[in-house]
Amino acid sequence: MSDLDRVLAAVDADLDASLERLFALLRIPSISTDSAYAAECRRAGQWLADDLAGLGFEAKLNDTPGHPIVTGRSDTGAARRVMFYGHYDVQPVDPLDLWNSPPFEPRIATSAEGVKQIVARGSADDKGQVMTFVEACRAFVKVTGKLPVDVTVMVEGEEESGSANIAPFIAAHTDALKADLALVCDTGMWDPETPAIILSLRGLMHDEIVVRCADRDLHSGYYGGAAANPLHVLSKIIAEVHGPDGRIAIPGFYDGVIEPPDYMKASWADLDLTPENFLGPIGLSGPIGEKDRSLVEMISSRPTFEVNGMWGGYIGEGSKTVIPAIATAKISCRLVANQDPVQVRDAVRAFVRSRLPADCSVEFLGGEGSAAVAVAHDNPDLARAAQALAAEWGKPPVTIGEGGSIPVVGQFKKLLGQDTLLVGFSLDDDRIHSPNEKYDLASFHKGIRSWVRILAALAG
Amino acid sequence: MSDLDRVLAAVDADLDASLERLFALLRIPSISTDSAYAAECRRAGQWLADDLAGLGFEAKLNDTPGHPIVTGRSDTGAARRVMFYGHYDVQPVDPLDLWNSPPFEPRIATSAEGVKQIVARGSADDKGQVMTFVEACRAFVKVTGKLPVDVTVMVEGEEESGSANIAPFIAAHTDALKADLALVCDTGMWDPETPAIILSLRGLMHDEIVVRCADRDLHSGYYGGAAANPLHVLSKIIAEVHGPDGRIAIPGFYDGVIEPPDYMKASWADLDLTPENFLGPIGLSGPIGEKDRSLVEMISSRPTFEVNGMWGGYIGEGSKTVIPAIATAKISCRLVANQDPVQVRDAVRAFVRSRLPADCSVEFLGGEGSAAVAVAHDNPDLARAAQALAAEWGKPPVTIGEGGSIPVVGQFKKLLGQDTLLVGFSLDDDRIHSPNEKYDLASFHKGIRSWVRILAALAG
């Protein structure tokens, strides 16, 4: 029996204990965007640092102006070093009443199709995925006494709230963090049978638009018909963002956007991605994007504008005949290669200002965001990882662009000069960011086994 | 000294005590639209019933399926009987942080211009106005031992939440409530020096529009660009309600709308109502209504469509890259003569449905509403009241249509066969339904004196 087979067997034998450890981490409500949970975020970070220390890592919790960053470093003199990145923070859980069980009381549920699932906030995004890597390391240490490559671990607590402190931290610790390759486990499978390696990530620009009309809330009986209503004004602006062709009508929005490279377009041809199988499971039928683009292009390689939240006026029980003074929208844009997030932010703001009635005003409360990144597709480690995944899953991974954003990947390239291998095991139906988030037990188990194989392959 | 002069002198002498009584009523947070305040609503009603009983009225609190209705009846054998209607409930107080002092701790403030003001929720709408009438009755009883006309008082507790129970109550008590004339004190002055009698009231139709797209909240990184966003869908529908000419583009919306009568148009010519003096004080400059209509027409004699509240997605601290599953808008329409509220509701709903993407759905949660009413302008009591107001204020009242809605006035005509005299003393800057609602001390004092004169005049 090879070392690799013995490590894989140890993963299988240790699965129940691995689950117990994951559940302990999932029980900590580390919601980073809400300051009420700051102590819980620290507790989650400390839990991870303690776990890494138990595996022989030199581990610690690094304070930042926000939530702390966990680092761990193994030094066994291996020929190569990889840096693993993940995040221990999770999304808010509202609307809480749509959860079938408390979000921070993890449990194993069995779906109607008989699939065993880990249900909890953070099960897929990203605690469950982080632990696939940690458990892979644990199995190597247990069976062979050491890791096949040296490993630096960096797990942050602000990925779901803008990652404001990770870039300064990397910049301040470039020597300690430098490695041959970065590994990230925060993405998905192509489908439950097919692994995926992500070759590009969209960027992200957040903003909050606050429109003010009258200087107070008004009685709609006295002023209705004459006074501007900021909910009407904001609705009209949002309605005009997308043209009838599905394109975003903001002047300058598409500046810098490049067409996807040929090797990526070629890979799309093999994908069975249809509106039915992509949108059907969430209760939709037709894609609403640009009419001349394919579905896979819309969700991976084209920029977007979304209203993530909007509110104004009376939103309580019953009715109130008010013309509100203020209307607010939280918006975000997914960005693709060569779009400048600052320029996009300025274009959005100019668009809003240009449509504002003369006696209304607007304030913008958002931040700057991150640019899209592409991973070099000819990096030889990609081929090694692809072979490892093929061995575990019985079929080669799909290599695609991914619609989500992991801003830190751009920092790895810029500050550390290293490419990133993006491999993850979540599924489209994992309800990430939604009530009843889950992670298939198979994603967790075979995810650990996948990292065992990848780490062995990267050792060369 | 005449009886009238002695009663007016008693009003002046008793002003401080009158204020104390009003403050006691204002301290009761009788918010009818929020069921958490049901006991406070009852307490306000009971306070009024007790006060009326102290004036010799046969007074009681009448239970309804909602908040109770106060009735009081004087029987002194006078030649004529009037029925006074008002409401003891108040609007919600949010946003609470915009109040300069607690909304249910009434106080006298002095404005920058030196005007003394009663500041509290309900000071103008409608507790302060109700008490102008009650204090006028008190002064008569105190000085002359009786009222110049017999009086029936009916004060409800659900005017700010749809008045669901007042029409059934009237229908069940037509004999007890029938009078020669109804009096309502829930409207405004033309300006601080000029009284007003209201000849028409707009109707009101409420609805709540709930748009659903995907069957769960979605991650904007996975689905952004392809999945429908209900905030975009709802914004687009709302944006299309008003055409570029300011007209409401809902087919059938204007069905039945009649042009204002000539005597009303003639009265507008004398009014100095400009965008500067109407909208300037609330921080706006230009009216947003139909481009071919005058400002006074927009706010008194044309129907409206307003979004009173709207929400969807993540509205907490920080950001969340979610495509929400649901977006909601509370809307209301002010209606004018001959519009049918049920037909308008159906037209609004058909408009929304016609603009909904095929894979999205809509639900409507609102009620039916009330039609507009007009008061007979040749009723001889109008002339009597006008003379009484002219004597108090030194100038004749303006007779106009009013943009607000008091649905019960239509019931008085329909169920009791009586016209309504609408006289009130609130001002445009009273911040009705808004934070820091106030009622000028002069409105209260001269309001009491006005009712003394009107009651004397109506006795004939």
What's this entry about, in short?
The first copy, chain A, is an alpha+beta fold and 460 residues long. Chain A has helices spanning 3-13, 15-26, 38-54, 127-144, 166-172, 174-177, 220-223, 230-241, 262-269, 275-279, 295-300, 341-354, 380-393, 408-416, 441-458; strands spanning 58-62, 69-73, 81-87, 107-110, 116-119, 150-156, 181-184, 196-201, 203-212, 218-219, 306-313, 322-323, 326-335, 361-364, 373-374, 398-402, 420-423, 438-440. Chain A is built from 15 helices and 18 strands.
Name a few traits of the molecule.
homodimer; 460 residues; alpha+beta; Aminopeptidase; Alpha-Beta Plaits; 2 domains; nine-stranded mixed sheet; four-stranded antiparallel sheet; 35% helix; 20% strand; globular
